[in-house]
Amino acid sequence: MIRRPYIESSTASVWQNDPQNPDPETRLRPMTDTLRHSVIYPGLPDEKLPWDKVTLSVVIPAFNEVKTAETLLRRVREVPLTLEVIVVDDGSTDGTRDLLKDLEREGLIDTLVFHEVNKGKGAALQTGFQKATGDVTVVQDADLEYDPFEFPLLLHPILAKRADAVYGSRFLGGPHRVLLFWHSVGNTFLTLLSNMFTDLNLTDMETCYKMVRTELLQSLPLSAQRFGIEPELTARLAQAHARIYELPISYHGRSYAEGKKINWKDGISALWYIIRSNVLAPKARPWAPPAVASWEQRELPTQEQTATEGAEAP
Predict the structure, then answer these.
(1) Are 262 and 228 in contact (CB under 8 A)?
(2) Non-local CB neighbours of 157 within 8 Å, separated by 6+ positions
(3) What angle (nearest 5°) sits at the alpha carbon of residue 3, between those of residues 250 and 157?
């Protein structure tokens, strides 16, 4: 079940996690639009946005992440937004599948899908995208390299109707672990080549954090099975004439000893997908946002509705 907190008023529109409160039952308290805005963009005038109306679908591909999956999912559930959490296990063999079943029963996962064999990150994401029912969809890896508490930062330009897609860049000055020089060189080269084909000026095409309006995302022709999904998705968004924003995020990278899976072969594959996705068919059709966004058509839940949903929850 998608968790939507009861909205007491237009000013108490979302929830703030209060780490200083030791009581987990009362730790979440209302966060006003003014407070949220000051956290995201300090010093700017307040901008009222419909945080209480939007549902964010979080698609999490998982492959052999038994060490980090539970910690990641609990952190995702602490994000003060209405979330639909979709996890796609891509043929894990290390106990991740059994762990995810337990976490689904606990209510941390709304939709859990299993691939019987490992098909690749791209295949897992496409499965998850098809299941998404929220207004906006974001990709979240099952490791702990990216912090889901930055979802509101990425969501802001979409709710403000300035963007159709937002990329979280690891190379725009956010805090990050110092790690793997040649990986950063490879990322820079692949982003440059992708930009040459798409005529975009991204700094981090390979980032995991891609947040896209769901109706746009589900209209894109995607086929990459592994890590080629990153350049393919970028090419399709450019072909659709999507308005793309890029914002700095933190990054806590892993070493190979800690479980990092991407390797030089995936870099070679990315080269092919950059060319294929930008030159060969099928290409995405131009897309324009509707005059009224999906979240604007949604009424706020009443206290009675929220109580009923809670009573029906298992």
Answers:
(1) no
(2) 163, 166, 245, 247
(3) 40
Classify strands 210-213 and 136-139 as parallel, antiparallel or unpaired. Answer: antiparallel
- Alpha-carbon distance 258 to 254, whole Å? 6
Structural domains of the chain sorted by starting position, each given as residue range(s) with its CATH number in brackets: 51-288 (3.90.550.10)
Which strands form 136-139's sheet, in the order they lie side by side?
111-115, 82-90, 55-62, 136-139, 210-213, 165-169, 244-248
- Closest C-alpha to 76, from 52, 101, 109, 106: 109
Reduced to 3 DSSP states, what percent helix, strand and coil does the chain have, rounded to the nearest 5?
A: 35, 15, 45
CA angle (44 as vertex; 40, 48 as ends), nearest 5: 70
Q: How far apart are CA 79 and CA 31, in angstroms?
A: 12
Distance CA 278, CA 235 (A): 6
Q: Mean pLDDT for each consecutive 10-residue tract of the chain (314 residues)?
A: 47 44 48 50 69 97 96 97 98 98 98 97 97 98 94 96 96 76 87 98 97 98 94 98 97 69 78 95 96 85 60 60
Q: CA-CA distance, 189 to 93, in Å (whole number)?
A: 34
Token couple for 15? 């929830």
Q: What is the DSSP letter of 9?
A: S
CB atoms within 10 A of CB 272: 12
Q: Is 111 helix (H, G, I), strand (E, B) or coil?
A: strand
Cα 169 to the center of its chain, rounded Å:
13
189's tokens:
């080269």
Which pTM value belongs to this model?
0.82
Beta bridge partners of 168: 247
Nearest-angstrom CA–CA distance, 154 and 209: 9
Copy the structure tokens of residue 284.
């995405």
Residues 6+ apart with CB under 8 A from 63: 89, 90, 91, 92, 96, 118, 121, 124, 142, 261
